[in-house]
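assembly run, all chains below
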Amino acid sequence: MRSTQVRLARRPVGEPQDSDFEIAEAELPELEDGQVLLRVIHLSLDPYMRGRMSDAKSYAEPVGIGEVMVGETVCEVIDSRDESRAVGDIVTAYVGWQTHAVAPAAMTRKLVDPVAGLSTYLGVLGMPGFTAYAGLLQIGRPQPGETVVVAAATGPVGSAVGQIAKIHGARAVGVAGGPQKCRALIEEFGFDAAIDHRAPDFAEQLAAAVPDGIDVYFENVGGHVADAVYPLLNKFARVPVCGLIANYNATGPAEGPDRVPEFLRRVLTMSLTVRGFIQDEFVRAHYKDFLRDMSGWVADGSVHYREDFVDGIENAPAAFRGLLRGTNFGKLIVNVSEPPAA
Amino acid sequence: MRSTQVRLARRPVGEPQDSDFEIAEAELPELEDGQVLLRVIHLSLDPYMRGRMSDAKSYAEPVGIGEVMVGETVCEVIDSRDESRAVGDIVTAYVGWQTHAVAPAAMTRKLVDPVAGLSTYLGVLGMPGFTAYAGLLQIGRPQPGETVVVAAATGPVGSAVGQIAKIHGARAVGVAGGPQKCRALIEEFGFDAAIDHRAPDFAEQLAAAVPDGIDVYFENVGGHVADAVYPLLNKFARVPVCGLIANYNATGPAEGPDRVPEFLRRVLTMSLTVRGFIQDEFVRAHYKDFLRDMSGWVADGSVHYREDFVDGIENAPAAFRGLLRGTNFGKLIVNVSEPPAA
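ok done. output:
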């Protein structure tokens, strides 16, 4: 079986270029015992992938030059040498940017009676939804009446953060880029307020939208959004640090002065909690609760989601570049092949 | 009754000068119902007082120009118009840098059967000891076999942090200024390792002293000590932020580049918890446990402490300036008047 693959051709300097990727075909090996052959239906594109393209120290190994770009997928099993998986099973698997793959059956998760479209298991019912759920509830711990601010708020993590905050009785304020996204935050996702971070008076608008200050800032972006948020944090505020997309393409040190002393002074005087996390630390204790809660919320309409589809694995690099620039709207999914007929 | 007072004459720019203080006499008002007249025996000098001299936003109101400098004291009650306090009682009270004071009886805490000298209730058995106890155990949460690093380690907070960490089965590494203090960390306080932050190869020495990385960094100082510590933090490390003495005298923005993006990237990729705190948030839940535990540890010799005495309220400004430069050694106490004969 041949697989069309998107590989890392070289490490990007700053914003990734098309030439940092290469598209090539590979002959997959024969199945061994315990393995399955997968046809990729949907591929998830996520900001964290920018980190894997660099070789700076991080929470995960970088993708090697010439290796297939990593990523979560929804696949159909088209051949199996493992009792637990049958041909026709639909699974999620971390096989990356390619059309077909051989994987250990044990590394796949079978979808049983999905409550929504298959692609949602890469978004609201998958890793991004769980990231929002675990980071907000385990670190942010919003209390009824508190104010939660989240940036990249129309993204799959941000939109879930705001909606889960509302379900828990907090006020949700979203930050997004442009009036169209801000309108969707109010009308589609039910946020209490939405602020356009591109507005020249963004910081003033944000301050006006949080008359009682900010108790939880779910950090997805860093940069000038964070600069506006931190002075508004209340005493004992919590900052789950989930992502820093504003910095991912940085090519060198940021312009001075050094604001670390000021940052730490604020942490001290306001008794802030700043806590980085990757969702996997919470999987064992909280994934089951997540699947139950979020499936219920999606099914009964209390959590909405939006998806942004791109067709064809060969278009993944351009779509990913757009994701880093914020040009897409909703969970970015590559349709790699047709889902099976229902 | 007249009181000799040290007042804030003007807000310091950078390091405080003698001329930022003024020494003056005041006639105290007559006692009203519910009040006590206090003779100050010991005054505590602590780094946080530098913050109160500035009018930047902080966790407490600044001292006003012309007002008495704030601070915790041990006092003898020499007159009382409250049933709960008798002449001759020994109390702690937050009456500041002066020889006598009128205070509400309800704002004093009576010392009953003290287990050690009265001055210890300003140090190891007082606010600094409680700061160490609460910050280390509630935020740092050291586990047996983990590595705890603390700077300003011969100070009243730092020395308690290291010794409590040891009692809880962790490895204690102290950072201090100069070979004399480092020797005391090992010989007097029982730390496992001591590093002189003035050494030109300080960062390399620290790295060599923590072969398993750092799980808890109790932050008292910031500055170049923190710069050496952060790259050594393990995944899921905890950083209780208790003080930032290296920055207290800063007069303007720190030299670039801006390292906030790098700092937050580390928080994210290493799943760090950075948590500022002031001890008072933990008083209600943990002060009784502290008094019981720490009194026991002091009495049985498992926690040692060192005190550094200065005689005379008029010498408080110079002693305080030395404290900010790190020239003292141990809990800095001003002997304001003689303790009562035993």
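Residues 90 and 112 of chain B are 8 Å apart (CA to CA).

The first strand of chain B starts at residue 2 and ends at 8.

not gonna interpret more than that til we talk
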